Amino acid sequence: MTFPACPKCNGENTYHDTIQFVCPDCAYEWTGEEVAEDDEDQLIVKDSNGNLLSEGDDVLLIKDLKLKGSSEVLKKGTKFKNIRLVNGDHNVDCGKIMLKSEFLKKA
Ligand SMILES: [Zn+2]
Question: Which residues form the Protein YjdM C-terminal domain (predicted)?
């Protein structure tokens, strides 16, 4: 098993003390990002305020959005109920349309 190089000094003598990674060269300690990806069903989707969104949440649009390929504009403040989270660029399924979580906030 190999450990990632220290993000601070790039040292390769790092080890894992069961809670976090430790670099003996510069005493830097950090937790691996990979830990959160163990459960593949758990999508991490954050709204414009950095709050985690969950399946079934209600969200509000924070800005006017012009829909691609049409003249229709989604108005700021539009509410979408019972969202689903998906993997991808447009990571929130609002029923009729797919939106990016950065344009939404939890209602
Ligand atoms: Zn280091």
Answer: 45-107
Task: Calculate how far, in angstroms, residue 30's C-alpha sits from the geometric centre of ligand 1.
Answer: 10
CA of 36 relative to ligand 1 center, distance in Å: 23
Residue ranges with CB less than 5 Å from ion ligand 1: 6, 8-9, 11, 23, 25-26, 28
Tens of pLDDT, residue by residue over 42-88, are 688 999 999 999 999 999 999 999 988 888 899 999 999 999 999 88
